[in-house]
Design a protein that fits this description.
Chain lengths: 113, 106
């Protein structure tokens, strides 16, 4: 009975994590500039990984596997913002016109000006 | 349906979804117009492969495969850092050379 409960918990967490990953891939295709795309990609890097690996942790065979899976979550949560920062700095450095490109959709641009 | 069968169906389903996502990110990495687009897409592929290796570790009941996943996370982070540094260095070097040439002409 407890095993089935663990299975159901794993299924729920893995399904929500995969849903967030699918959403982030759709977002990467929908946006049309890299500084927008990074927003969608970072969502999959943090929340998607958190849900998927927590779901795997619930049904891990022993305690050390579970702790190692949690260590992956902690490491990715430190590494993902750093790599996002580096990619954003690269884009701002090599593209002098980055502030003229559409950071917002065009129908929202008109309200500001 | 026994518990073992249920687990194998769950893991194979998760692996199939992740496989489609990796292919989609790879197409994005090929299409991406700028270099930063490609780096973002490769970073996403790394994240999805980490989850795939974790699923395979639990599917095969091999705990040590989780170590592979942790190492993959570290190496994928290192790859992004090194690629950013290299492309920024190439750009700055080219810019310095162009500034030098314009000064020589003037």
């Amino acid at each position: 009975m407890l095993d089935w409960l663990r299975f159901i918990l794993t299924t729920g967490l893995l399904a929500s994590g995969l849903t967030i990953l699918i959403t982030s891939v759709i977002g990467v295709y929908k946006f049309d500039y890299v500084l927008n795309r990074m927003h969608a990609a970072a969502m999959g890097d943090t929340l998607g990984v958190l849900f998927c690996l927590l779901g795997l942790t619930v049904s891990a065979p022993d305690i050390w596997t579970a702790l190692k899976l949690l260590l992956i979550i902690v490491f990715l949560w430190f590494a993902s913002p750093v790599s996002s920062h580096l990619v954003a700095r690269l884009e701002v450095t090599i593209n002098p016109n980055w502030h003229q490109l559409p950071l917002k959709p065009e129908h929202l641009m008109e309200e500001d000006t | 349906m026994t518990l073992h069968n249920a687990y194998s169906v769950l893991y194979i389903g998760a692996l199939s979804v992740l496989m489609v996502l990796v292919v989609a990110c790879f197409i994005r990495a090929i299409k991406g117009p700028s270099i930063a687009d490609r780096i973002v897409a490769i970073n996403m592929i790394g994240t999805q492969v980490i989850i795939m290796v974790g699923v395979v570790a639990l599917m095969l009941h091999e705990g040590y495969l989780v170590d592979v996943s942790l190492l993959y996370a570290m190496i994928s982070f290192l790859a992004v850092v090194v690629l950013c540094k290299v492309y920024m260095g190439v750009f700055l070097e080219r810019q310095a050379k162009m500034n030098q040439e314009t000064q020589d002409h003037a």
